[in-house]
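User: Can you fold this complex?
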Amino acid sequence: MSWSQEELVAAAYAVVFVFVLVYVAIIAAKLARLQREAAELVELTRAKGRDDS
Amino acid sequence: MGLALVLALIVAPEDADQGISQRIFYIHVPIALTAYFCFGLGALKALLLLWRGDERYDLESYVAIHQGTIFGALTLITGAIWAKASWGVWWTWSSNQLVLFLVLFLFYCAYFMLRFSLEDGPRRARSSAVYALFGVALIPVSFLAIRLAEDFIHPTVFTREGPQMSGSMFATFVVSWGAVTLLAYLLYRVELAGKRLDADLRELREALQ
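Assistant: Here's the predicted assembly.
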């Protein structure tokens, strides 16, 4: 398959864009998981507080 | 990043020798320099860990090397695309610069294999730090290979006489480099904050249960 110079330039910039996009998506998913975990811990702490009192 | 893209793809003049494919230079070289910087930062944090014994440097070293590996992979991919456009091949084993960068990249990929094969704790932190420090020796070799190489296939743009490009091309390169460095710094801070938060939450969960 032959590639034109324009296609190769577009491919180089597109690869970088996709990499950054995937990286941001992974970080966003991780932050969402951490948010859920933090909410669970808050709930756990409240339940413990109720049990103690 | 937006300004860098406009300058690199629209404003910067077309290279008389390489034509439009030279525009890959504005993304490939800043990414490669950022990869070197991240590996160097990872080694510096590793040195600080061994010197001061503060465990926070372990996570900082790991995140910097992780960033370096991502930018290293991008360097190899954008480099291969530029090679196809300029030389007609995706890769050539005859270029010392390419092969040495691949060795540096694979060396730091193996860092993760070492790190995740050990139990979490001070031993893992120290072993990872020593490995990261060994890798830093490859950075100047890889960086200078372009000048020491005898094949001359990889272009040398920055010489002792200064950059071998016009003023507007150099300005575009500087803006692109700044944008990529800023992007790397932001990704480093976000990933580090996420990892620290993860560790804090794990500790809190253990304390509560």
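The longest helix of chain B spans residues 167-208. Chain B has one domain: 18-150+167-208.
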